[in-house]
Amino acid sequence: MEKDGSVRVLHVEDDPDFADLTTRFLEEEDGRFEIETATSASEGLERLADDGFDCVVSDYDMPGKNGIEFLKAVRKNHLNLPFILFTGKGSEEVASKAISAGVTDYLQKGGTEKYTLLANRIDRAVTERRFREFRQDMGQDPLRLIEHLSDALFSLNEDWEFTYLNQAAEDLFRGDREELLNSDIWELFPEAKETPFYEQYHEAAVEGEPRTIEEPFEPWNRWYREYLYPSEDGLTVISKEITDEKQRELELSRSRELLGHVEKLTRVGGWEVDTETREQYWTDGTYRIHDLDPEGGFDPTVEDGFEFYHPEDRETIQEAVRNCISDGVPYDEELRFVTAEGRNRWVRTFGEPVRESGEITAIRGAIQDITEQKNREQELRTAKRRLDLALQQASGAVWEWNRETDELYWSSELLDMLGIPSESFEGSIENFEERLHPEDKETVEAEIEKAVETGGPYRVEQRLETKGGDYRWFDVRGQVVDDGGSMVGVGFDITERKKQEQRLQKQNERLDAFATMVSHDIRNPLQVAKGQLELAMNDCDSEHLDSVEGALMRMDDLIQDLLTLAREDADMIEMETVELTELTEVCWQNTETGDTTVRIETDRSIRADPSRLQRLLENLFSNAVEHGGDGVNVTVGELPDGFYVEDDGSGIPEDEREEVFDVRYSMTEDGTGLGLNIVKQIAEAHGWSIHVTDGSHGGARFEITGVEAAE
């Protein structure tokens, strides 16, 4: 289609500064763009009522309706209006919901290069819509349609001379149509003789059969898909540039590869069920959990999936799926599972409805192998039961309750904790209930009833009133004995621990609030500042602007490290089996390594929190690249009780090795001084030790020890 006339764009963004910056960049990218701004979804819908817009660009995270809800509202009255979600909240879940709701395109915010990409996406979406409308208006005039095709169409005679070019072909060859006609294509473009296009054109002409080719044209650094139609008079070619499409394919391939690594590391798989056909889509991770080959030709239905569950758990999953399809009720179940190879496993399966126009069209979810977790839970239950039984023999804070007579015995130590003289304790269950905090009575009664019914252990945290009228917290454990006639157990004063937990909870809430403030309230203005700086640098040349750019980059690094520090303190370590080799490869790909290389000299599996370990490795890799110089070599190897990361760079002076993990320590002026401190925090959170020594080839070597190997 001809690229003339204005393009009217409605930009919905609740941050005025970001909206203004986006407007300025888009209008600079393409003079045809006329950007109008709305600060909320409701205002955007009011503006759209006037019509006349060619495209909508919307944020996701906004007050009131979010971007997906706004998109659904737009689609009710503007079914074919291009809608691009331009958001800082990037995830597969958001992208999936946007696609389901009919989004035209999806793009994450980022650096200023994103505005160029956004401008291209707007141009393409508007062009494709206008082309569809144009075809409807064209009626039965194919010649006019050919002339205005967005794809280049040209004809060559037997001597390879141009006999016809439409407007798009004229633009493709960057020449005047009259000058191109009757000219030899290979003489005009001799560089094409060394490309696959030359060979393919000649083969098509000789064989006389139509063919489709998809090749990069190296001289122009572009990809093209071409349809070749030979005839007695020569060759007709329809050519379409697909550079962006190929780039998207590459990005998709990388995403799938990353998904495969993540699924393998976490033992998770994804799936989706079509509610109408009952067909299922499984990711490779899901096939692995079922002990099936993804390429084995097994195309499961939802009924096929049910058959893998243990017979006693099958009804549970069937009912959960039925309720999700009929009523939209999400589910999260831990169930027994039998694989295709007959292995008994435990899985955790999640499911939630996918809606289109209010109707449930699919269920989407995940499945995770939690067998090791369940085994650990069983081991913990066994260990706790043995510990409780052993404590019953100790002369500590012991209690015994005869359920038939309601007589209750508390040892003197427990009475002392409450400041109650032994002579004032009546030794009855009523006396206990009087001292039990009112808010804890329901929980205690329920746990006692459960222990009696199942014969299992009893454990509850409860508050008991002291002689002075205060309450103290107790961790109370017990066991049903004498065929349910009695319960015996111990109690530990955990009042100080509870106070500490409350302090930690408040601290974590403050850390979470801090992280949220840094992530949103500081980063957004910083992004605006970067954009304004680039605009200023385009307008003038000043060494002061270079200093500002460096300061902004350092602020960005500091914010990222501060966020990591805050979240390292707030989150819990979740240990699982990690393949060190595979995670190292992922971390190396995520690090800007330049000319550096990595050598992996271990195939060990260890117990670690995957995301924390990934952060530790990436920080060590970045440190090696930053301080080691160009061409530094990095090695990851194993120790008897851990692993090491070393480089062959300049190393760390011996008198500074005790300081490298301190906050604010940095060997460069540009460093934040937080990277290695974060490494130390992650190691210590796992219970590991880390220290620095000389590398095998003169660089720095970080040794992490005390690491548990996975069996």
Quick structural gist:
This protein has 711 residues and is of the alpha+beta class. It has six domains: 7-138, Rossmann fold; 142-241, PAS domain (Beta-Lactamase, 2-Layer Sandwich); 247-369, PAS domain (Beta-Lactamase), CATH 3.30.450.20; 376-493, Beta-Lactamase, CATH 3.30.450.20; 498-569, Orthogonal Bundle (Helix Hairpins), CATH 1.10.287; 572-705, Histidine kinase-like ATPase, C-terminal domain (Heat Shock Protein 90, 2-Layer Sandwich).
CATH top level assignment of the largest domain: Alpha Beta
Round the Cα radius of gyration to an integer and report it.
34 Å
Report the uncertain regions. Answer: 391-396
Which CATH architecture of the largest domain is right? 2-Layer Sandwich
- CATH topology value of the largest domain: Heat Shock Protein 90
CATH superfamily of the largest domain: Histidine kinase-like ATPase, C-terminal domain
Q: How many helical elements?
A: 23
Kindly state the mean pLDDT as a whole number?
Answer: 83
Helix content: 40-55%
Q: What proportion of the residues form beta strands (DSSP E)?
A: 15-25%
Give the distance, in angstroms, between the N- and C-terminal Cα atoms.
Answer: 63 Å
Q: Mind summarizing the main beta sheet? A: 5 strands, parallel
